[in-house]
Structure formats: C-alpha cells, structure tokens
Amino acid sequence: MRFAISLLVIVAVAAIIGTVLQQNQPYPDYVFEFGDFWFQPFQWLGLFDVYHASWFLLMLAFLVVSTSVCIYRHLPGILRDIRSYREHASLKSLRAMAHHQELTLQTAPAAALEQVQLWLQQRGYRYKLHAREDGQLLAAKKGSMQRLGYLLAHSAIVVICLGGLLDGNLPLKLQTELGIKQVELRNVPQSQIPPQSRLSEGNLSFRGNINLAEGTAADVIFLNAGRGYFVQELPFSIRLKQFHIEHYSTGQPKLFASDIEVMDRATGKVTAGTVKVNHPLIVNGIAIYQSSFGDGGSHLQFAVWDWHGKSAKPVELKATSQTTQSFDWQGAPLTLEFGDFRPFNIENIGAEPQPGDMAKLLQDARQVKAQKNVKNLGPSIQFKVRDGQGQAREYLNYLAPFESEGRYYLMSGVRSEVAAPFAFVRIPLDEDFKVDGFMQLRAVLSDPNAWPVVARRMADKAEHDGAISGPFRKEFEQSVGWVLQRYSEGGFAALERFLGDRVPEDKRQAVAQTYIKLLQGAVIDAWDLSRERAGEAPLAVDEKRYRFLMDSLVAVSASFDYGSGFYLQPQSFQEVKSSGFQLTRSPGKDLVYLGSVLLVLGIFCMFYIRENRIWVWVAEGRLLMALSSNRRDALTETEFDTHRLAMAGIAGPQEDSQT
Amino acid sequence: MSTSTLAAKPLSKAAQPFWRDLRLGDHLFAAFVLLVAGIVFNRYHAAMDGYEQAILAGATLALIALGWFWKSVRVFFPVAGLLALGGIALYGGDLARGQSAFWLKYALASQSAAMWMCVLFFLATLVYWGGLLRRSATLEAIASGLTWAAAGAAVVWFFVRWYEGYLIGPDIGHVPVSNLYEVFILFCLITSLMYLYYEERFATRRMGAFVLLVVSAAVGFILWYTFDRQAHEIQPLIPALQSWWMKIHVPANFVGYGSFALAAMLGVAQLLVAKGWLASRLPAYETIGEVMYRAIAVGFLFFTIATILGAMWAADAWGGYWSWDPKETWALIVWLNYAAWLHVRLVKGWRGNVLAWWAVIGLLVTTFAFLGVNMFLAGLHSYGGL
Fold first, then answer.
1. In this complex, which of A276, A280, A368 lies closest to B232 when CB atoms are compared?
2. Which pLDDT tens digit goes with each residue over B26-83?
3. Is the CB of residue B171 less than 8 Å away from at least one CB of chain A?
4. Residue B17, domain member (yes or no)
5. What is the mean pLDDT of residues A293-304?
6. Which pTM was predicted?
7. Do A5 and B340 touch (CB under 8 A)?
C-alpha cells in the first residue's frame, strides 16, 4: 500500500514536470533553452517525452500489477462478505460492538421475532434467521453493494490502464529498442523510406498526421517519434477534394471542414465524407480528424517592378506558393522561396480607447455585444529572396490596397531576421488605383538624364515667380541636380549622411531645410516629366496629389533599405488550400470507456451506499440488538437510534426505563 | 452534543419507496419542469441534434430529481426561471431594448443580472460575517436570503445571456459556459447553491461567512474581468467548442470545482476552530469536518465524470481520449489528490487538522488546474485564457 502511494506520488510529480516542460519539441530548442550541460541528463531521463519514458511506463505497469494483486487478494474476502449474513456471530462479539442494546423481552420470542422481521423488512434490510442453542439470531444487512464499489473502482483503474497500454506506443518502442524498427531522421520522399522505418497497415494502434493539398491523395501517414518519424501505411488512400473555412462577422473562425474521399485499397470502395473539427470520419476503424489547415501551393501571378533602374515597365512572374524557384535579377542568380499564401488577413484594429467615466464604464458593462473593429487586409504572400551567398530576406506583400486617411497604398513588409517584425514600405497608388504612376515617377527620379530637365523646368518656374534671377540660375539648377543625384543614391538617408560628413553642425538645420525644399519642388516637375514620358497629360498639383508626391518620396527613400532591387506586386491568385489530418486507430478506447463506467459506478457505490448490518438475538425474556456500519458518523447514530426505539417498542416496557 | 446538530433531519420512520414520500409540491414541481421542457422541445427540437435532445431530457430529469431531493429547489428554480423568461419576453427580439426598457436595463438583462449577483454576493458575505460576529440569527437569515437572491440572479443571467447571444446573431448564440467569464459565474452559482444545501441539511448558517469568501473572491475577479477586459461580451464559438459535449463537460467540472472550493473554505474554518478562534461561534469541529467530507465526495464524483466526459470529447476533437495535454494531466493530478484524501479518510479513518490542511492545499492544486494551466502552460485546452 505504502509502495503504491509512493509510486503514485512519483507519477504525479513526473506528470507535473511533463506539463511544465513543453514536450516533444525539436531537440535544438531544448539545447538552446537549457544549454548543453543540462540537455544531456534531461534527455537521458527522458524529460522531453516524460509520458513515454521507459521509467514512467514501468511505474504505470507497476501500479497496474500492484492494483491487480490487491484486487486478487481482497476479492474472495469481499465476495464472502457480500454473500454472508454473519449469522454465526457470538453474543460476546455483538456485545463488544459500539452500537448495541440489550433489553428485557416482555413478549414471546416468536412474536417478537416476527415483529423484528417486519420492521427490518420495512427498513429495506435483507436478513437470515439462524436458530441456535442459545436462542434465535436474526442477521440482517443492507447496502452490500458498497463493498462492490471497492472492487469496481480498483478494477476500473486496471481496465483503463490496460486500454491505455493497448493504445500506447509500447510495442513500437520495444521494436525500436530491439532494432527491428528504426526512426527515420532524414527528410526524404516518402517512397524512398526503407522498410525498417515503415509500419504495416496491420499495426494495432497508431496516431499520425498527414497534410494534403486540395486535389492530392495519400495512403500513408507520419508518426512523430522523438527526433524523427515513422511511416504508417494505411489500408486506404485518402484524397482531399476541398477544404472550407468560414468566419463569423467578428472575424473569428466559424468552420473548418474538409471534403474527402477515402478509397479502400483492397476493395476499391470509395467512401466520401466531410471531416470537421469535433466531427471525425471513421473508416475501417480508423478515425480521421481535422487537425490543421494551410496553404497547399496556390498559383500566383506577380508584376516585378524595378526599384532603382530607369525602366517603369513591370515584368510578369508566375509562381506557386510553398515552392522554391530560381530567379535571375539583372544578372544575379537568386532563389525565391515562396511561403504561405493567405487569402485573408483579418486583423482586430481594436475599439478606440475612450476616456472612461463611471457612466460609460457601466454602460459598457451592460453591453453584451462586442464592439469589434475588424478589418480584412486581403490576400498576402510571404516569401524569401536568397542570394548566391545564401543570405536571405523575408517579404510580406499584400495584394489589396491599404487605406489610411483617405489615401491608398500597397504594403510590402521586409525583415532580415525571422523573429523581427516586418518593416513596411507603403507604395502610394495613383488616381487610377494603380502602382504605375508611382513607378513612372520613381523611374524619372532614378534617371540621371532626367535630372537636368527637371532642374531646368524648376529654374524656369522660379525665375518666372521672381524667386531667382540670372546669375543664380545656373547655381540653382546645379543644386537641384545635385540633390536629385544624392537622393537617387540613397534617399533621405544619403542626404543626411552628406550633411553629417560635410556640413558644420550649426548649419545643418538650415541646409537640410533647403535640400528638402528643393526636393519637394523637384518632385513636382519630375512627376510632370514622368507623365509626359508615359504619354499622359500633366495635372495640376492639388492637396491630394501633393500628398501622393510626398508619399512617393518616402517610398523611394525606403526602397534603399528594402534589400532587393525589385518589388513583387501580387496581381492575381488561384488558391489551393491544404488540410492537415490526424488519423488514429485506438482499439483500447472501448476498454477505457468501460473502465470509466466501472470507475463512476465504483465511486458511487463507495461513497453513497452505506453498508449497515444488524443483528437481533432473541431468547426467552432477552433481546439483544447490535449494529455495525462501514461508516461511523452521525447517520450511523441516527440509524442506531431509530432501531433502538423500534426494538424498545417490540420488547415492551423495561424495568429500569433508562433507554 | 454534536450528534444532535448533525442529525438535524431524522430519517423517516419507515424506509419506503421514495415516491411514497412525494407530496403535492413535488408533483407540481415535476409537472412544471416537464411542461417547460415540453415547450422547449416543441419550439426548438429542430435546432437540436439527437445528443442535445438527450441532454435536454437528462437535464429535465436531473432538475426534477434535484427538486425532490432538495425541496427548496422547487421554489427557487421556477421563480428564477420565470424571471428569466420575463427578461426574454421584454426583449421582444430586439437586443437594443436591453439599453432602453427599464426592467431590462436595471434588472433582467444578463449583464444587469450579473451586476446584481455581484452586489448581492458581496452583501451576503458581509451580513454572514456580521451574523457570525454578533451571534445574530436574524442577520444570518438575511444573509441566507441574500445568497438565494444572488444565486437567482445568476440563473437569470444564464438564461437571458443564452437568449441574447441569438439576438446578436443566429450563429453566435450558445449556452453560456464557453469562456472564463461565463464559467466564473457558473462557479459562483454552483458553489453558493451547494453551500445553501448544506446550510439547510445541517441546520446551521455559521459556515456561510467562510464559504461566501471564496465566492466573493470569484465575484471580485468577475468585476475586474468585466470592467478592465470587457470579457462579458458574447463571443461566437470557435470550431473546437462547437460540440454538445461542452454542455455537459463544463457544468460537471464546475460542480467539482465548486465543491472543492467549498471544502477548502470549511477546512479554513475547521483549522480556526482547532486553534480556538471563533470556536464558540462556528459549528462543532466534527460537523465542519463532516460537511467538508460530503462536499469532497460529491465533488470527486462529479469531477471524475467531468474528466471522463472531457476524455470522450477529446476523442472527438483532439484525436485521442488522452494526450497528456497539460489540462488532462492536471485533471489527473487533482483527481489523484482527492482520491488520496478520500482514501485516507474512509479506509485509514483519518480525521482532523491534516485533512483540513489538505483540503486547503487541494484548492490551490485545483485552482492551478483550472486557471494556472490556461495562463502559464501551452496546450490544446486554451479556451479559458485570460
């Protein structure tokens, strides 16, 4: 008993460790977290997969064995107890009981006995009459099932553990230990995985995963095993026809569902069905669950825009998400690694925080309808651009324009470290909601041949306005050309660098102001020029268009930190979704459920049935009543009092009426 | 003597089939519950699947059984239920009326009822303490009434909120046991009702001061959660929670949590009595121990059922009845803890301070399994996060 309790305590402690330490993570994560020194002993102790560690399973096995032994030892005694009325109890032992009462019997023993029987029957007792030399003993009992509770509860634990064992990975573990099976650590196509890492479809129980893109099928799943995996063959092939996702108006997901077809490999019979969260499809005793979803390789089309060259024309690019393709950019061999395509990006912008006075707070507390401010930012694609040296930057480009203060932008995020947040470049859209206007302007700003033209036009205007005259005109044009050149080399940052290097500190402010003014003026003429080049009529600059030009300056400047010389503008897509399934075969489930029923019954019997035994011994002029209960509490006292009164009634008036 | 306080209700003279003990009130109550269930079935059976219809039938029978077992329920549930129906009728299918119709705005809209519940529980706690310290039976009776009223407000909250969800959107409505805010009110309701039962059963109101402390703590949390986090807003169910299992798993669990919390507070009271503090005011040491045992026995049974239901749900939702998910593992630890507690009391015959301390520590373990796991450990059961 003490041993079992200590085992239970160790199991509980181990279980706690397993919840605090995240289980079954990739090993490098653990090394990173604990360092090399602790990683080794932790791994040796199996702390990264406590619940399947040999010592843990061994302890569970020990518990099962010791509980079984316990049941085996107590079973005969309990069965005997349930059957027996203990009608052979001696008077001495009855008198030794805490609850007993001896009375003088005024009536005939036979009549009294009859009354006692009637009374006990009424109270729901079963009894046995035993005539013996010293009189008659009526042995009664009620609630014998209480004793059964112990058996039920303890066998439930054994049954549940056996069911769990059946569904656990113990056989696979043994086979791995013996070298019959081997964990596959490599990342190779499924067909190349050797037989010692494959499990046949006859495998009794398993739990594995498979990810399918729409329109694809598979007849194997992968079982996670420590650092690697096994391939589990299935008796059928499973094909994903379509994956559905629905959202509530508040943006939260409402439905994940996969339409699938399951074809039996032996008979060719096809079962079609829909798998939803909470609604698995069960085929041949194998349950198919909806467990995840994602992008299954969507077809994408991009316009590739040059950030720095003279051309304002895009190049077409076709790609598929979740794939890698090589890409030649102005002679440099690059790799484009396309990641997730997301058809929607629902963001909670959040309700505006309002100054909360008490009345407002109370009013909010009464409202059950959420005031959500959600926004769908539309489709996005994430990808990496890797150069010949293996250096990569990651990008996140949105297809739909993003609105801010009445103006529209295309957003492109960039980061050079996986953990870093994306830094976004906002590319302003022109009046036709196109990116072309900006790109034409950008091409002019990058074109050295255009700078003198822009400078001349600007000088013309300045002269016309009387701001400059004859001798200064050349200097002015030169300054404009110089600022444009600097800007085209590195945006605002290049101008700033020049200021820092060449201009004394006390003059920087003033010079910077001048540069900005020149640039702000020049961009208007550059825009006119860009429209001329595109064969479009010039437009008068109003407030809105001026904002567009300023946004363009900011965007061009940001392009110098963009990291790649081009911008991939998502243009259209054809979505292909993927769905992740978990497939399990768990023959132990029914056993576990049976055990659970036994457990509840057992607990009920143990706590809510009380076993009472009553003995009434009757002889000429004497009546002895004794009561024993498995529970010694107030209810036992009440029960005893009730019987004592009844017996006193049956026995008749006592000489010393002390009861 | 302790026996007399314990044996407040003597056993009936002769054990006879329980239906012979039923009085007119019992039959009326049963008829009323059946009538209500019949109306509900008639109106909504098309929207319920077979399991949900079974749950409705089960809940109907359970409520009737509860009313027969504990007579006060025969008044409590019809009154609270009619108030809830009144609230629903006042809405008239328009959620905006919650902010304009007088009775909804100040009493029967779910959030107004929740606020009343909070206020009444706080008041009840204060009055129970007043009654305990001043040895005033009147104050204790008032406190008891306040607790009943608070529980009634929680019932109104439950049904009206259920209805309000559907007013927000036909796909949004669901039984309000789906997130931390909702289950905290469920916790307050169940804990206080269980306490009220023992109060009647053992004919003493002196444990209320302690039990209501834990309810008040929960109420404090509810208020913070409402005002600081707007957690009271009705959210639609994510796919993982769209299951009829939720309707039985969650309430069963909270009978467990509620009774463990109740037992822990009695443990505190018992320890104080053992030290001689408030000893003359609180019930006898053994009485408190007895109630504590009963609470844990009920809680353990329900917690076992809830955990099994959880495993069965997991078999439908997570791909396996047991995955050693932190929530599952901590449920097992809680289960083992109280199994050991009951074992030493029943088999080894332990009594006294050790069990009281153990019940208090048990509440800490339970609280971690309930809240801590959601807050600190990553896992599948991440529905009740803060």
1. A368
2. 999 999 999 999 999 999 999 999 999 999 999 999 999 999 999 999 999 999 999 9
3. yes
4. no
5. 94
6. 0.88
7. yes
